[in-house]
Amino acid sequence: MKLVKNLGIATASAVIGITSVSGSSPAQAVQLFDFQYSFPSYQANGTAISANGTLTTTDLDPIKNNYTITAITGTRTVQGITDKIIGLLSPGTYGINDNLLNASTPLLTQNGFSYLVSGSGEDGNGNVNVFYSSLNEGYSEFSSDVDYGSFSVVPRPVPEPYTVSGSLIALGFGWWMKRKQAVAFQKKAHKGIYL
User: 54, 61, 88, 183: least buried by Cβ within 10 Å?
Assistant: First the structure.
């Protein structure tokens, strides 16, 4: 009887868990994109720059056909020195950035996205802005030292809510069964002592 009660509770918990996970709003949906860029030096005394990492975005806006970048992680390398990317700057804070990622080419707008690095960045304060040229010359950073270069993103799969909830339910059920076996073993061991 106790087993039937426990299975009923586990089943009810699973249904509630799946319902709450699958009922998330579109505003909570996220996409992950691995990004990479490389910009050669503009002049002989200039500096080549490269960076890579992950962009976290909202779900695709079907009307504007773009994503809003909400977070960034990764590294940026200049003259052999690699700085950690600390975080995304709010829209309009550096280089009139809009932090948009287009679903088709060009992948960035003329305002691009801005982020903060642990080093000096483009302005000496750690700020960096990556954008697409208004003259269709290519992608670059807001700096006079670098030329136009390559920028690419690759979508990273995000686990579906049912996969995550199913895994949690399976782990919970496994833990419950293991616990039940341990209790039964202890009861059996105690009976053997008193006989």
Answer: 183
Percent composition of the chain: helix, strand, coil (DSSP 3-state, to 5): 30, 35, 35
Contact 89, 123 (CB under 8 A): no
Give DSSP secondary structure letters for 7-73. Answer: HHHHHHHHHHHHHHHHT--GGG-EEEEEEEEEE-BSSTT---EEEEEEEEEE--BTTTTEEEEEEEE
| CB burial of residue 173 (10 Å; 0-12, 13-18, 19+) | middle
Phi and psi at residue 98, to the nearest 5°: -110, -10
The SS3 assignment for 74 reads: strand
3-state secondary structure of 96: coil
pTM, two decimals, is: 0.67
Tell me the per-residue pLDDT of 131-183, one tens digit each, with 9 for 90 and over: 999 888 999 998 878 899 999 999 988 666 555 566 666 666 566 566 667 66
CA 139 to CA 147: how far, in whole Å? 9
Between 134 and 82, the more confident residue is 82
Q: The tokens of 18 are what?
A: 């799946």
